[in-house]
Design brief:
alpha/beta, globular, two-stranded antiparallel ribbon
Length: 293
């Protein structure tokens, strides 16, 4: 299958490009050429690929994977540019009303895991109309608008939990803290926030690409069991073989942000990488005997 990945070289989008290529698809990555390219794929480099992406290459792939959508305008621009392609896009668990409650912007809905039909935020632009993102300051950053546009064109939406993997700044900070072997304050120690391994995101996108029946569908993606923040830290320490002296930080309680991803498992056959296996892949090569002494 011919697939265009908009982005295609970053933390998440690079993993998507690699996974699609390894599964036998003909993959093109559309990007600015600043990040090192994934060698297995074709690269289409242009300054027009700056985020938000409003101009696109003159190609007509079977499927477009938009890995870096910002809001309504760029989502609609992608739909208009590829009228004969299926479009799949990445969204986020921040569309749920619970996320607004975590930020103190909305009342918390009933507790429990969030399936794809759970209430969505009613307060838009929770980070402001000019939001600080990994790509710099972006205007009108709102995944609710991305989803509305993509689903209106019978596209597919993948709502991601917190993504982790090699290159994840949170994981790097946690590892550095463990290696210092000093007491560590764990924020929101008993809070549950669903995570997902970056390679599992790539697998899920590949499954959406390969299944035409995913058109018009929304899928959550995350681990089947969500530990507390403290339990997650303890698992990382155990996998890394490093001591952990943790002191939970007392904070005002916030509702858990737990995603139910049973739909994508049931409909597309997604199988997650166990958290311990994923962390061992990431941590193992980093820990030297000297670090463990």
């Amino acid at each position: 299958m011919n697939v265009l990945v908009i982005g295609g070289t970053g933390f998440v989008s690079g993993a998507i490009s690699r996974a699609l290529s390894r599964r036998g698809h003909e993959v093109s990555a559309y990007h600015r050429g600043i990040t090192r390219g994934v060698p297995e794929v074709r690269h289409i480099c242009s300054p027009d690929a700056a985020i938000p992406v409003m101009r696109f290459p003159d190609v007509q792939p079977d499927v477009v994977v938009h890995a870096v959508p910002v809001g309504d305008a760029d989502a609609r621009a992608a739909i208009a540019a590829f009228p004969h392609s299926r479009v799949a896009t990445l969204s986020s668990g921040d569309v749920y009303k619970v996320y607004g409650a975590v930020l103190g912007l909305e009342e918390a809905p009933p507790s429990g895991a969030l399936d794809e039909d759970a209430p969505l935020r009613t307060v838009e632009y929770p980070h402001g109309r000019s939001a600080q993102t990994p790509w710099g300051v972006l205007r009108d950053y709102e995944k609710l608008h991305v989803e509305r546009a993509i689903l209106g064109a019978s596209g597919t939406v993948l709502r991601l939990a917190k993504v982790y993997g090699r290159g994840d700044r949170h994981l790097e900070r946690w590892l550095e803290a463990l290696q210092l072997k000093k007491p560590i304050g764990v924020e929101r120690a008993h809070w549950r926030w669903t995570h997902v391994f970056v390679e599992d995101v790539a697998q899920a996108v590949a499954l959406m690409v390969e299944n035409p029946g995913s058109a018009g569908r929304v899928y959550n993606l995350g681990e089947a069991r969500t530990p507390t923040q403290l339990e997650r830290f303890e698992l990382l320490a155990r996998v890394a073989g490093l001591p952990l002296e943790a002191s939970p930080v007392v904070e005002s309680p916030v509702p858990d942000l737990v995603l139910d991803s049973s739909r994508i498992r049931r409909e597309l056959g997604f199988v997650e990488t166990p958290s311990e296996v994923a962390l061992r892949r990431l941590v193992g090569p980093r820990i030297s005997p000297a670090d463990q002494s």
